[in-house]
Design a protein that fits this description.
Gfo/Idh/MocA_OxRdtase_bact_C; 9-stranded mixed sheet; nucleotide binding; alpha/beta; 14 helices; 16% strand; Dihydrodipicolinate Reductase, domain 2; Rossmann fold
């Protein structure tokens, strides 16, 4: 074993044993004679020294967005396939940045030069990279969903609290107009007494067209010469390399990704989840799974999530629809849409629009709201009701910063992140429970207090996922 590997493991074990106070990194600056672990000040020229972990595809987009804020210095690049065509753009943008294929080696060699990291990698690798970064006292921007299993997210939330680092999940609409409008309308009493939400994402997915009668995972293929496949696999159960795991195809497989729900749920349901204080559901019921199989996600899914009463707010049912043939019914007054008689009705409802954009409909006791995805705002429907309510709508403030600037400014102690792990964690856990019900194709009853599935022992064990591979166990000991 390499000496730096022994050193890293020893460090991680020591870090996991330390308190949050003793784990405060040296670049945090005391304010008024005391350390503020949740509002650290970055001292290097008012810019955050950042390392980009994952620089191809979505990871590359995140890297460019963070850099374009003008608030960071790029000190390191890390990707398991640094020689691949899809990583070259970012490498060429930052020729002076140190380069690594293994995030563990990067932290071994230059942790003292890094203030923060972005994590734009497959879902199954979010967890170990984030834990490693936090144990070194580094602030973390991690793409949605936070992680692939319920328990991993639980550990990440504990880690953020323990180490006092700034965290942000990458559901960028949470810093745009949708966020500020929902917040203002909720505080003004426009959005109240919500009882049901319909959420939908019916666009084509990568696995549409695959054979659902699959009997095993894809057969092994030669690993590209430039790729570190062992690090790509990380904590997950080992599979030989196959091109259908790489370049975004990981999203299709239960072992690596979170399907449509994990990919789009955080862009559609984030504001409702936060401002309606939904927390975790008590029941998750897969009402419809087309071409269910144990390896990759269904061609279409309808999932019902039940949330209980919360304070003076009534219980809420959220029904999620995905799939090309699974477009939900829309309420009266939704708006004019082209109709396709070839699409069957749903539960005896109206003929559906040929395509329904990703979004949601929110039903309260008095009003119905129509909304989209990401930063798009809500509207009241039908139009007659919207006109009646117009004079009562509060002024909605503009966002002071986009999601990427918000993260970096928070690293400087100038703002607070809008999607920290404390907020994004329970939201991501909702999706973990939904994916678990998809995978098993059965109803789950969940105890919000004990955070256990009470009606299905097998499902309850799967909250933790499969045991990590040998050599990766330390990430689960925080």
């Amino acid at each position: 074993m390499k000496s730096e590997e022994i050193s890293r493991r020893s460090f991680l074990k020591r870090a996991l044993a330390l308190s949050a106070v003793s784990a405060i990194p040296s670049f945090w600056t005391p304010a008024h004679g005391r350390v503020l672990p949740t509002s650290p000040l970055i001292s290097a020229n008012d810019r955050v020294n950042i390392a980009f972990i994952g620089i191809g595809q979505r990871g590359g987009e995140i890297a460019k967005e963070l850099y374009n804020t003008g608030l960071c210095n790029v000190v390191a690049l890390c990707d398991v396939d640094m020689g691949a065509p899809h990583t070259q753009e970012i490498i060429n943008m930052f020729p002076k940045a140190a380069r690594f294929q293994d995030f563990r080696t990067m932290f071994d060699r230059m942790a003292d030069k890094i203030d923060a990291v972005s994590v734009g990698v497959p879902d199954h690798s979010h967890f170990p990279i984030t834990i490693e970064a936090m144990a070194h006292g580094k602030h973390v921007y991690v793409e949605k969903p936070m992680a692939r299993t319920f328990q991993e997210i639980e550990i990440m939330m504990r880690g953020a609290k323990k180490y006092g680092v700034v965290t942000q999940m990458g559901n960028q609409g949470h810093s745009e107009a949708n966020y500020f409008q929902f917040k203002a309308w909720k505080e003004a009493g426009i959005i109240k007494d919500v009882t049901a939400i319909t959420a939908h994402m019916n666009n084509p997915r990568r696995w549409h067209g695959w054979n659902p009668n699959i009997r095993h995972m894809p057969m092994g293929e030669p690993v590209p010469e430039t790729m570190d496949w062992d690090t790509w696999i990380g904590v997950a159960q080992y599979h030989d390399y196959n091109h259908d795991y790489h370049l975004g195809q990981w999203r299709c497989w239960y072992d690596f990704g979170m399907g449509v729900l994990g990919d789009w749920g955080a862009h559609i349901l984030d504001t409702a989840h936060e401002f309606l204080d939904l927390g975790l559901p008590t029941e998750i019921n897969p009402l419809y799974l087309k071409d269910h199989n144990p390896f990759f996600f269904p061609m279409s899914s309808t999932l019902l999530f039940k949330f209980p009463e919360r304070g003076n707010m009534p219980a809420v049912d959220i029904t999620w629809y995905d799939g090309l043939d699974n477009i939900p019914s829309v309420p009266e007054g939704y708006g004019v849409s082209e109709l396709d008689p070839n699409i069957p009705t749903v539960a005896g409802g109206k003929i559906q629009p040929a395509k329904l954009n990703p979004g949601k409909e929110i039903y309260s006791k008095e009003l119905t709201f129509k909304g989209g995805s990401h930063g798009s705002t809500l509207s009241i429907i039908p139009d007659e009701k919207a006109k009646e309510m117009e004079s009562r709508l509060p002024e909605v403030p503009k966002s002071p910063s986009n999601h990427f600037a918000n993260f970096l400014l928070s690293c400087m102690g100038k703002e607070k992140t809008r999607s920290p792990f404390s907020i994004a964690g329970p939201l991501s856990q909702v999706f973990c429970l939904g994916v678990l019900s998809q995978r098993l194709n059965r109803k789950l009853v969940f105890d919000r207090d004990t955070k256990q599935i009470t009606n299905d022992p097998e499902a309850n064990k799967m909250l933790c996922g499969v045991p990590p591979r040998k050599g990766w166990e330390q990430y689960y000991t925080i």
